[in-house]
């Protein structure tokens, strides 16, 4: 056993360990105390110097060295006299049968600790059809390649997943890795609103389309020039209902009433009818004042819908057209149903929303998310929910829909509804954000798995620490110092907060064999 | 110049003599119209026949009319559909081709992993045609994945791509099932001649102008007859063209007159339901019409068998109905309830049934569960569903079906 240190004091949650000379402990290092029928896994959360020499004497010695400059001044037996003290906390007790408990006792006093090895982490091992690979266990900055973290996809996506980080810490890479592994699972279907069109893999880039089973498990929609095998993202205006705007676009009561009235009168054509309404023809039989009010309401409503959905009115043809080809008054009547069907069959559906404005993107997501939740609610009523895969909605910049300010100023939207009650119906959110602190605590606490990447903002770290599934109260600095690709998983589905190294997506994808297509000849009839 | 675009004729679908006669008349009328209008050529985009080897009566009808077109100097270009093709045996399409009455436009050449389709050029107009047949259970997807699109896109002239399959972007009222993305087709061609969707539709997309389905001429599934009765026009497409498509028009084929009787019997006792049906039937004039009686709902008491549908049919025929169809799959009783959904095409209902059933099976094999399990089941059913043709020995049939099924399951 290679000894890294020895327990010399402290108590529960803050154990003091003297570092063995020659070993170089790091914050985040995982240590092991071998006990009778179990091992205790501990984590370093603080490092400080220790010395047998009084501080004032040390200062004086430093003065002598600096000012007098004796050429060969050194401590007598320096390894005994000066050392590093590590502050560690116990994370988990792993029993011989690989069961894991939260530790309720201290390691043996004066017990020797060693750096963790992959053998100690066997309890984590094992992929499977519905398990996804998140990364490798990391001890400080050392990556233990043999210790892979696989999580049950059904569990983590049902109970919502939060991916918080600031720019440049590897959010996109992590999301790609997760989605890539979801392509192997038919137990989870995902709707991905890809605001940067970065996940699919276009123009020879490695992306989700590089997955060997992408043909069966991945569906990609884009508004223009879809690559072979992918689909046009065109959604019929008929499929939009007034409630799809809820919590996304702010409407006055009068505007909402008008929308509902048009929906009631014209059903699928309500948006076209509003957009094509000639304001001068409104309220002909009413008083002038009423007519003016209605005209103003309608004008503002037209403007809001036009801006939200990027619509234009072609007065010559008397039709409503979409600037980005996504909304259409004729085509795309089945798109939402197709997307939902694919998700219900356990596929990953990526929508390229890069050409849409914020509101239009959220409305598209709202149309589909509402259908998914409705289907799953109905499945629960019919007693067949068990047979459905978990559905997750992947949304970036999540505070746009589940932020405190949004939820206070507007009505609930489908995303916040899913965050609050989707779990009962196997529908979850995968929320990616830089700003966790603006998400209400109730929602944040409901997100039962968080993969925390580096974050230098204190307020964000505190929001995460306070809502974590494990006690991360001593990990503030650790989170701040997480480098690109380094993360901590805190979840009700892991025995302790797991420090991980997320694989580099391109390297990971290139290690898999390419799609089988092209290796055998097909007979063409 | 102009051409006619037909698809989903489903000759041989009708099993009852009056409807077989109607099917024949409509088909013959359409061919005669094409000849009379002097079209330069005719496209048939799959499912000319309802099965790959229809009975002799059907083959005779087709042979005669294709000969008429041949004699009139009108070439016919075709791809197989999912119904009239079999990977293991011949098709009546092959017979028409052997007779010189029809040209298949799927002419692949070997180019390694890619499938290169060579254009067939129409001698009269110079139009270039290429296409893929539609195979059951989405097996044609592999064709499209390997298609050398650039080769087709780089050719000059007026270019038509024939296909048989549901393009996702063209779906509208269909219950979602497997569909083909338009992006699999070569871009920038002049006309995309489709088959498989049974109602007319014509749309354009960026890079894909004139994606057209003519729909069925009469009916290829039971739901088509109901749609006909509700006023759906059936026919084919006539396309005027020069260097580009100039006009696409739907030409309605005269069919028969219909009367649809919808009876919601939900919650009624069987005697009440019978009385309601009688009353509704009595209120129509069935003379010379195809009457479709559709009864649905769950009877509150009594059995569905308590309703004497054969007497109702007899009464309607005596009243002068051309033909009577009674659809009562949606009618159940509390005393005997079967699970099942009756909406959608047969393929859609089958897929849903597999989805439901597979969801109840507890196995860990990924290839047997989820959408992969449904795909495999659908492929197996496609192999196993056809009865032995009269001209095939039982032993040969069993050997063929077994080999096909084991191949699909990857057990070779």
What's the gist of this structure?
Chain A is of the alpha/beta class and 525 residues long. Helix content of chain A is 31%, strand content 26%. Chain A has helices spanning 55-68, 78-81, 153-158, 171-182, 214-217, 253-266, 270-276, 288-309, 335-344, 358-382, 399-402, 404-409, 414-421, 441-446, 458-467, 476-480, 505-511; strands at residues 3-11, 14-19, 30-34, 38-51, 82-95, 100-101, 112-115, 131-139, 142-152, 161-164, 188-194, 218-222, 231-232, 235-236, 311-314, 319-322, 327-328, 348-352, 390-396, 427-433, 449-453, 486-491, 498-501.
Secondary structure layout plus pairing:
The complex is a heterodimer of chains A (525) and B (412).
Chain A: E1 3-11, E2 14-19, E3 30-34, E4 38-51, H1 55-68, H2 78-81, E5 82-95, E6 100-101, E7 112-115, E8 131-139, E9 142-152, H3 153-158, E10 161-164, H4 171-182, E11 188-194, H5 214-217, E12 218-222, E13 231-232, E14 235-236, H6 253-266, H7 270-276, H8 288-309, E15 311-314, E16 319-322, E17 327-328, H9 335-344, E18 348-352, H10 358-382, E19 390-396, H11 399-402, H12 404-409, H13 414-421, E20 427-433, H14 441-446, E21 449-453, H15 458-467, H16 476-480, E22 486-491, E23 498-501, H17 505-511
Parallel strand pairs in A: 10-20, 10-21, 11-18, 11-19, 12-13, 12-18, 14-17, 19-20
Antiparallel strand pairs in A: 1-2, 1-7, 2-5, 3-4, 3-7, 4-5, 5-6, 8-9, 8-23, 15-16, 21-22, 22-23
Chain B: E1 2-6, H1 17-37, E2 41-45, H2 56-71, E3 76-79, H3 92-98, E4 103-104, E5 108-111, E6 114-117, E7 120-121, E8 128-131, H4 141-146, H5 149-154, E9 159-164, E10 191-195, E11 201-205, E12 208-213, H6 222-229, E13 235-241, E14 245-252, E15 257-264, H7 270-282, E16 289-299, H8 309-318, E17 323-327, E18 331-333, H9 346-359, H10 370-384, H11 394-408
Parallel strand pairs in B: 1-2, 2-3, 3-4, 8-9, 9-10, 10-12, 15-16, 16-17, 16-18
Antiparallel strand pairs in B: 1-13, 5-6, 7-8, 11-12, 13-14
């Amino acid at each position: 056993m290679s000894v890294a240190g020895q327990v010399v004091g402290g108590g529960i949650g803050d154990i003091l360990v003297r570092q063995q000379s020659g070993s170089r402990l790091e914050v985040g290092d995982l240590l092991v105390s071998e006990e009778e029928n179990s091992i205790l896994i501990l984590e370093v959360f603080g490092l400080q110097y220790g010395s047998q020499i009084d501080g004032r004497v040390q200062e004086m010695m430093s003065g002598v060295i600096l000012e007098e400059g004796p050429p060969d001044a050194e401590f007598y037996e320096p390894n005994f006299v000066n050392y590093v003290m590590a502050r560690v906390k116990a994370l988990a007790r792993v029993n011989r049968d690989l069961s894991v408990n939260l530790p309720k006792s201290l390691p043996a006093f004066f017990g020797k600790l060693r750096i963790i090895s992959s053998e100690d982490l066997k309890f984590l091992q094992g992929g499977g059809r519905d398990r996804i690979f998140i990364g490798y266990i990391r001890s400080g900055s050392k990556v233990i390649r043999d210790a892979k973290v696989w999580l049950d996809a059904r569990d983590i996506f049902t109970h919502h997943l939060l991916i918080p980080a600031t720019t440049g810490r590897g959010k996109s890479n992590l999301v790609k890795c997760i989605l890539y592994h979801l392509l192997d699972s038919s137990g989870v279907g995902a709707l991905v609103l890809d605001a940067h069109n970065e996940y699919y893999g276009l123009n020879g880039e490695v992306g989700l389309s590089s997955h060997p089973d992408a043909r069966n498990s991945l569906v990609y929609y884009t508004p223009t020039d879809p690559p072979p095998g992918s689909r046009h993202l065109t959604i019929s205006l008929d499929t939009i209902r007034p409630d799809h705007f809820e919590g996304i676009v702010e409407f006055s009561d009068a505007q909402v009433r008008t929308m509902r009235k048009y929906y009631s009168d014209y059903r699928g054509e309500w948006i076209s009818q509003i957009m094509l309404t000639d304001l001068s023809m409104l309220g002909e039989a009413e008083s002038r004042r009423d007519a003016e009010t209605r005209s103003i309401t309608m004008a503002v409503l037209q403007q809001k819908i036009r801006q939200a959905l990027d619509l234009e009115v072609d007065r010559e043809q008397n039709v409503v057209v979409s600037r980005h080809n996504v909304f259409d008054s004729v085509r795309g009547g089945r798109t939402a149903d197709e997307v939902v069907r694919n998700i219900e069959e356990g596929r990953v559906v990526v929508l390229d929303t890069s050409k849409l404005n914020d509101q239009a993107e959220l409305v598209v997501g709202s149309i589909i998310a509402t259908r998914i939740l409705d289907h799953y609610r109905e499945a629960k009523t019919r007693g067949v929910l068990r047979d459905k895969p978990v559905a997750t909605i992947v949304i970036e910049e999540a505070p746009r829909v589940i932020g405190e300010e949004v939820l206070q100023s507007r009505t609930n939207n489908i995303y916040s509804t899913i965050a609050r009650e989707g779990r009962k119906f196997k529908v979850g959110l995968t929320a990616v954000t830089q700003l966790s602190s603006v998400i209400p605590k109730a929602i944040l606490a409901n997100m039962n798995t968080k993969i925390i990447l580096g974050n230098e903002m204190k307020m964000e770290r505190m929001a995460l620490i306070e809502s974590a599934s494990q006690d991360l109260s001593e990990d503030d600095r650790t989170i701040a110092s997480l480098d690109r690709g380094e993360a901590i998983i805190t979840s009700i589905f892991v025995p302790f907060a797991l420090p991980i190294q997320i694989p580099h997506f391109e390297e990971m994808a290139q290690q898999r064999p390419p799609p089988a297509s092209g290796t055998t000849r097909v007979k063409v009839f | 110049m102009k051409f006619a675009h037909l698809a989903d004729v489903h000759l041989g679908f009708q099993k009852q003599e009056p409807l077989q006669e109607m099917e024949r008349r409509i088909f013959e009328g359409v061919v005669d119209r094409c000849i009379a209008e002097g079209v330069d050529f005719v496209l048939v985009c799959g499912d000319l026949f309802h099965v790959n080897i229809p009975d002799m009566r059907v083959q005779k009808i087709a042979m005669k009319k294709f000969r008429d077109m041949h004699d009139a100097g009108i070439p016919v270009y075709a791809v197989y559909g999912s119904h009239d093709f079999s990977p293991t045996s011949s098709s009546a399409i092959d017979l028409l081709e052997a007779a010189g009455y029809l040209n298949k436009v799927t002419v692949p050449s070997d180019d390694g992993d890619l499938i290169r389709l060579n254009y067939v050029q129409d001698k009269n107009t110079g139009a270039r045609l290429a296409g893929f047949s539609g195979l059951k259970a989405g097996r044609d997807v592999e064709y499209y994945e390997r298609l050398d699109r650039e080769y087709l896109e780089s050719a000059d002239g007026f270019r038509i791509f024939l296909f048989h399959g549901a393009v996702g972007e063209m779906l509208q009222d269909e219950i979602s099932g497997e569909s083909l993305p338009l992006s699999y087709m070569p871009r920038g061609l002049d006309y995309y001649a489709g088959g498989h969707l049974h109602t007319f539709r014509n749309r354009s997309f960026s890079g894909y102008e004139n994606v057209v389905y003519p729909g069925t001429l009469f009916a290829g599934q039971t739901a088509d007859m109901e749609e006909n009765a509700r006023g759906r026009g059936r026919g084919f497409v006539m396309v005027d063209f020069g260097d580009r498509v100039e006009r696409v028009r739907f030409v309605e084929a005269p069919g028969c007159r219909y009367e649809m009787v919808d009876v919601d019997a939900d919650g009624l006792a069987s005697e009440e339901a019978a009385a309601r049906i009688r009353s509704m039937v009595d209120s129509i004039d069935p003379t010379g019409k195809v009457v479709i009686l559709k009864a649905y709902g769950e009877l509150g008491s009594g059995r569905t068998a308590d309703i004497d549908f054969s007497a109702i049919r007899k009464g309607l025929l005596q009243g002068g109905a051309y033909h009577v169809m009674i659809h009562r799959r949606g009618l159940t009783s509390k005393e005997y309830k079967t699970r099942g959904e009756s909406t959608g095409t047969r393929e859609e209902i089958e897929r849903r049934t597999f989805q439901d059933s597979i969801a109840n099976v507890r196995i860990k094999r990924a290839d047997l569960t989820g959408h992969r399990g449904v795909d495999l089941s659908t492929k197996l059913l496609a192999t196993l569903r056809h009865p032995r043709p009269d001209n095939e020995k039982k032993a040969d049939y069993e050997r063929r079906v077994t080999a096909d099924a084991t191949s699909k399951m990857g057990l070779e």
